[in-house]
Amino acid sequence: MTSTTSAPATTATVTDEQLARLAEIDVATLYEASGLDCAMEPEIRPVWPGAKIVGRALPLRTHPADNLPLHIALEHARPDDVLVVDGRQELCGYWGEVLAVAAQVRGVRGLVIDGGCRDVERMEEIEFPVFSRGVSVRRTGKNFRGRILEPLVVAGVAVAPGDAVVADPDGVVVIPADAVETTLAAADERLAKEAGFMERIRGGELTLDIYGFRNNG
């Protein structure tokens, strides 16, 4: 059985208080506030309506169509972790009801996978949020240990253990742990400014004037 090495678990640096604040802000606002290229490819979508995730990244990479690393990752998972998986864009059933229940028992907040999953109706019934590239019943092997708890690139975004992961119907962002506080501060400012803009729009002003776009182009 072929394997690659796994790094030991690292200490998450995003605080519980920061996670609670992130949960109050939509993904689009966090993305803009961060100023970072931190949005995953738009093909990564929720598998059931209304799914949302906020937690700390536990990154892992699989061999194509082999889900052994997802089983192993649950041994390392801590409460409030989010499994962020490079599934090599393979549309197969890497994840289903059994793994979802096992993850919930360990306090895992959700799954983001650049690959496929299945049992989506059960995911919704048990309210386990999954964001994936697609849905597929295709079976997987259990022969390759993959890479677990190492910095990776998943769906176009760098992910390190302990980074903040936020996902909602608009998409998925991964914010480096050391950028979370500045992102939150910028997001608060952005939301306050937009609230003022919305009041002016409802009063009849044009966005061309509010945003100063009239002389652009």
UniProtKB/TrEMBL annotation:
What's this protein's function? Catalyzes the aldol cleavage of 4-hydroxy-4-methyl-2-oxoglutarate (HMG) into 2 molecules of pyruvate. Also contains a secondary oxaloacetate (OAA) decarboxylase activity due to the common pyruvate enolate transition state formed following C-C bond cleavage in the retro-aldol and decarboxylation reactions.
Record-linked NCBIfam families? PRK09262.1 (NF006731)
Q: What class of enzyme is it?
A: lyase
The entry sums up its family as follows:
Belongs to the class II aldolase/RraA-like family.
Pfam families in the record, alphabetically? RraA-like
**Species whose genome carries this gene:** Ammonicoccus fulvus
Entry protein name? Putative 4-hydroxy-4-methyl-2-oxoglutarate aldolase
How far does the signal peptide extend, from start to end residue? none
